[in-house]
Task: structure prediction
Amino acid sequence: MNSLLVFYIISSIITASAIGVVTSRHVVHATFYLLISLFGVAGVYVVLLSEFLAIVQILLYGGAIIIVILFALMLSNISDFNLQIENKHWKFALLGSISFFITGTIAFFTTGGNSVTGIYGTNMRNIGIELFSYWGIPFEVVSVILLVALIGAIVVSNTERGK
Amino acid sequence: MSELSLIHIQIASIVLFSIGIYGVLSRRNAVLILLAIELMLNAVNLNLIGVSVFLDQSKFLGHILVIFIITVAAAEVGLALAIVLKLYKEKRNTNVDELDVLKW
Result:
């Protein structure tokens, strides 16, 4: 009962700040709304007894991705980003979004998710053992992906090359 | 329904994903589209964690997948922001309706 109450509070915060992300007229405000929303998702992870992923979420999203986005905005002229922020076809976007919401809600209710209760928490030790034994090769592939993305970002943003 | 169940997580996830879809379709600025994509990735992560916690109590498959998704999202944000900054330097413009240099 208590976890349901906490979940309602956190999910209303998440929804409100997500609406702030997609409707805010200022880019930096939208970024900070996204930060609140990501922290709310970390709170839901804590409610679901997955505290390791909550820590990873706060470290990587709050500590890395938001900082990178803010740095990119600060390195450019922000007032250019605020011009012409809205699309004139936003009604069609709203229609598509609402139809997706209705379809997904019907799908989730017909598959009987409301009868499933009982949270089984996990711990870091089991996740680590599973990640480094059974998922060892995908883990290495993901590290190569990170390296390639890092090199790619350097190559793309290097302006002195080819002159 | 006085206890936290799977349907609560699924509804929260689909609300977040729908808001992300609206953001991707209605915004014109590349950085704001990137933020909306982050919202959608978080909705997927939330759904995976919910299913993993409620239904899959032995294998932690959802947790592993979420770790991989977060890693790929970090790589994607770094690369996409590098491209957006490059475009901004070249064209002084990040409006995706006018970025059509790859079109022809």
Summary: The mean pLDDT of chain A is 85. The two ends of chain A are 65 Å apart (CA to CA). Chain A touches chain B through 87 residues (CB under 8 Å).
